[in-house]
Amino acid sequence: MTDAPPQPATITPTGVVIAPPSLDREGWLALRRTGVGGSDVAAVLGMSRYTSPIELYLDKVGELDDMPRSPELAEAAFWGHQHEPTIARVFTERTGLGVVEGPGMLANVDRRWMLANVDRYVLDEDAQPASLLEIKTRSAVQLEEWLGGVPDGPALQTHWYLAVTGYKHAHVAALLGGNRLIIHRVERDEALVEHLVALVGEFWQHVLDRVPPPVDGSEATAELLGHLYRVTPDTVTVADPAEVLPLLERRRELKARERRTTDELRKVDNQLKATAAEAEVVKVQGAVAYTYKQNGPLSPKRFAAAHPDLAQQYTHRVDALDTKRLAADHPDEFRAHRARRLVVVPKESAA
User: Fold this and answer.
1) Closest to 120 in 3D by CA, of 104, 103, 101, 105
2) Is a pLDDT exceeding 70 seen at residue 43?
3) For tag attachment on the chain, is the N or C end more exposed, with fewer CB atoms within 10 Å?
4) Given CA atoms 237, 238, 244, 245 in this order, what sign does their dihedral have?
5) Cβ distance 97 to 126 under 8 Å?
């Protein structure tokens, strides 16, 4: 009879180390696919702007090619990483609480698919880890939201880390606009933790069973579907009428409603503009109700027609990709990077 392999020791009340911080990126990405991490939780719940449930599912089952990442997101991630040590240091200065870096990726001792990559551990009076610190870098436009508490996305991530580690509370430090540090203490909400574990557990079971979540209406899913498949020109899929025809009918209904709503909204806006007449500010009962200021985009054509000499003086050439020549000289490469468009046949009526 052989002895069972020893279980790794917990370094938090319910967290065990499953990978050191020195793990290379390939190994780290592979390990992330063995469970659900804190940055995945918002996507699982359909609350992420950037990742949909179906995209996360495809990533976890290893069926997702590398998606193009916007330069803006890459730049934000870079500066978030650069600012992390500074934010941790200032957190200590302002709270008097010491912090240390963690020993690597954690998993929950009972549910190994529950993963966490904690930014810092907060020390107690005996210099022992007693809670965690989540660090965020955000735009100044989010300041008002952060002043009222930890926003939903970071709050869910923080509670997921509490679920993994077993800690009773956590701290969140967010640098807003590069010059305003907001610090919140988050107490463990046991009902929320249980709810999160149940919902995310259902998603993970779908991953294990290879049952993808349904396609939703998010922009993240639209972006995914535009890049997901390698398209073969002029190929045909014979679809089930029972599946497709109701969707086409629903689409026609929604497009008609969209056109009606657009026309009604334009009518209301035009009435408000007519009321403003030559004024830029309209008040109702002593308070500003709306403005109609001449501060929108310049119309180049109208300006050029009215002031041709000035238009010529301020016209300059810009570097631009010659798409027509590229398409003629390299049709395959050109086609591979074109966006896919949904066109319903026959063309929908504008009525």
Assistant:
1) 101
2) yes
3) N
4) positive
5) no
H or E, element range at 59: helix 53-60
pTM, entire model: 0.74
DSSP state, 114? B
Distance CA 132, CA 116 (A): 11
pLDDT number for residue 280:
93
263 pLDDT tier (thresholds 50, 70, 90): very high
Contact 138, 109 (CB under 8 A): no
Query: How high is the mean pLDDT of the chain?
Result: 90
In angstroms, the CA 267 to CA 273 distance is 10
Q: Within 166-306, where are the H helices?
A: 190-209, 219-228, 241-276, 300-306
Residue position matching structure tokens 């009518």? 267
As a whole number of angstroms, the distance between CA 163 and CA 191 comes to 11
The position carrying tokens 């020791």 is 9
At position 319, the amino acid (one-letter code) is D
Terminal-to-terminal C-alpha distance of the chain = 79
Please, is 121 exposed, middle or buried when counting C-beta atoms within 10 Å of its C-beta (0-12, 13-18, 19+)? buried
CA dist., res. 203 & res. 113, Å (int): 11
Cross-strand bridge partners of residue 322: none
User: Distance (Å, rounded) from C-alpha 161 to C-alpha 164?
Assistant: 5
Cα–Cα distance measured from residue 325 to residue 348, given in angstroms and rounded to the nearest whole number: 33
Q: What is the pLDDT of residues 233-244, one digit of tens each?
A: 888 888 999 999
Reading the block at residue 60, the tokens are 């976890």
User: How does DSSP classify residue 6?
Assistant: P
pLDDT in tens, 177-200: 999 999 999 999 999 999 999 999
Amino acid at 202: E
Handedness of CA 296, 297, 302, 303 (dihedral sign): positive
Q: How many CB atoms lie within 10 A of CB 217?
A: 8
The answer to whether the peptide bond before residue 300 is cis (omega within 30 degrees of 0) is no
Q: Give the separation between CA 95 and CA 185, rounded to whole angstroms.
A: 11
